[in-house]
Write a structure and sequence with these properties.
Elements: E1 4-11, H1 17-34, E2 38-44, H2 49-55, H3 61-69, E3 72-75, H4 93-100, E4 105-111, E5 129-135, E6 148-150, E7 154-156, H5 163-184, E8 188-194, H6 200-213, E9 219-225, H7 226-235, E10 242-245, H8 247-261, E11 270-272, E12 277-279, H9 298-314, H10 318-335, H11 351-362
Parallel strand pairs: 1-2, 1-3, 3-12, 5-10, 8-9, 8-10
Antiparallel strand pairs: 4-5, 4-11, 6-7, 11-12
Helix pairs in contact: 1-9, 1-11, 5-6, 7-8, 9-10, 10-11
The structure holds adenosine-5'-triphosphate.
Adenosine-5'-triphosphate binds next to loops.
Length: 363
């Protein structure tokens, strides 16, 4: 039988990026070597703050073009605080890429690990499992390069919500709620997170949410203000299922999610559009620990597991989807072992040891 060939574009990035990407590719190659129905090939593409320092370009057009021809994109982390644009902001090619590829749905799962870190003391928080969908192409990030400071007296930025992207985002989120309900054998729920009581743009966002909800009558649709959700994520996160929100709110809440998981080093993500998808950890390039062998590769490995699951679903390749689920299980199992517990979660395991623990759990 002819194997399905999946081409993966790889952005190694800055800081700890290359350190966590290398073991992730090794794990993926292990799956590819034993798979009967699919194969993986990898192409490394230049981008990032260091690349900008060398060439004056943090996201070359050639890299974007090559990424567009790939079946999926793996990205570790980009940006370095000491390399900045003339206006003082950091290079964020990962955000530019989301906009370039129309990756409107940033999927940020929040879950706890068996025998892993337990940040919230309530026993009901021992088994958390919810998902945050962060709109990733507009909101307060839409005009991110156009903020102005006027006469050194005030600064202003714009927030943009469009009907088209919001409809795509909500439809994606309703479908995610449906598929999770099926998988977990429970009612489907989706909550819109906004600030519709204060801002006209969020009122528009909420209205579109309610209009789309009418097309998904099997999903219980609700809405809550972002401040109340932030409190709920700490006080009773076990009541949450699928949440959908604007870009900036999602940026903040996903770090809160990573915090209740135990560390940014454990939190995976996927940025998904209609044609392309990028899989990357929620964390940044962590320059404070780069080159020391301390980076936790778990979030990167779990993001790769999401990639396999997504490829499997998109291309109707059961083996790829199953490999993704096996990898997720192996990684979550390894995270609970001493050799899989990184410094960031109070353990003593470095990058190599954690990657090995995942490999061992796989075999
Ligand atoms: P960005 O704004 O690009 O998301 P950030 O400013 O939030 O980045 P990070 O680079 O994510 O910052 O790092 C925040 C903290 O978390 C740092 O102390 C860093 O060392 C730690 N950290 C991030 N990722 C990891 C990881 N994979 N393993 C261990 N520690 C990590």
């Amino acid at each position: 039988m002819k194997k399905q060939q999946f081409k993966v574009a790889v952005f190694n990035g800055d800081g700890i990026g290359p350190e966590i990407m290398a073991p992730t590719i090794e794990v993926l190659q292990r799956f590819a070597a034993r798979a009967k129905t699919f194969s993986l090939s990898f192409e490394s593409l230049p981008a990032g703050a260091l690349w900008h320092e060398k060439t004056g370009d943090c996201l070359p057009r050639e890299s974007i073009a090559a990424a567009k021809t790939a079946d999926a994109i793996l990205l570790s982390a980009m940006g370095l605080p000491h390399i900045r644009k003339p206006d003082g902001t950091e290079m964020v090619p990962q955000i530019d890429l989301r906009m370039e590829l129309d990756l409107f749905a940033g999927v940020r799962p929040v879950f706890t690990f068996e025998n892993g870190p337990q940040i919230l003391s309530d026993p009901r928080a021992a088994k958390l499992d919810f998902v945050l969908v962060r709109e990733s192409t507009e909101g307060l990030f839409a005009h991110k390069d156009e903020g102005v400071v006027v006469d050194d007296q005030y600064a202003t930025e714009q927030l943009r919500i469009t009907r088209k992207v919001s409809e795509q985002l909500f439809d994606f989120s309703f479908r995610l709620a449906q598929s999770r309900a099926k998988l977990l054998n429970r009612p489907a729920k989706l909550m819109c997170v906004d600030k519709a009581n204060v801002f006209r743009s969020f009122w528009f966002f909420r209205e579109i949410f309610e209009q789309r909800a009418a097309h998904f009558s099997d999903v219980e649709a609700s809405a809550m203000y972002v401040d109340a959700v932030a409190m709920k994520m700490v006080q009773s996160p076990w009541e949450l299922d699928v949440l959908v929100t604007e870009n900036m709110f999602g940026d903040i809440l996903s770090d809160l999610g990573a915090g209740i998981m135990g560390s940014l080093g454990l939190a995976p993500s996927a940025d998904i559009g209609l044609d392309h998808a990028v899989f990357q950890p929620c964390h940044g390039s962590a320059p404070d620990i780069a080159g020391k062998g301390l980076a936790n590769p778990m979030a990167m490995i779990l993001s790769a597991a999401m990639m396999l699951e997504w490829l499997g679903e998109k291309h109707l390749c059961n083996e790829a989807a199953e490999s993704g689920s096996q990898l997720r299980q192996a990684a979550t199992q390894a995270a609970g072992l001493p050799e899989g517990r990184g410094y960031d979660v109070g353990g003593t395991a470095g990058t190599e040891s954690i990657a090995q623990a995942v490999m061992d759990a796989l075999s």
